[in-house]
């Protein structure tokens, strides 16, 4: 995969899903450590139907910001626009990544990287595994601010 080395080195430390050398146990250990350090308020989120709802235009803008090779970009676009046959009805998706495809988890991480960075840069202790994440906060006010920031990012 030519994309993984480009993006992997930029992904945030607190992102654990579908990444080399990282797993669910690592994410749980981090959450446990943050709880022991005083995180008492938890913002717990699971992005509903995440893989099916990633907007292609926003995802491609992120990929295009790091990948210049037109052939690679064209291949990703074709992958995302694969026709779908639903019964006898065929259609072309404008959002979502095909589940089960090798590249889909990487594309999903690319799409969520700006949220990871936003939360990290704002000083929040977020731990993400794929489309599930928690933000551990020391106060209710901090948790409410974190939730507001997440909602604003999600648009």
TrEMBL record:
List the PROSITE patterns. Answer: RT_POL (PS50878)
What Pfam families would the database entry show?
A: RVT_1
Start and end of every Reverse transcriptase domain? 1-155
* Coiled-coil ranges from the UniProt annotation: none
The identity of this protein, by name, is: Reverse transcriptase domain-containing protein
Q: Which source organism does the UniProt entry give?
A: marine sediment metagenome
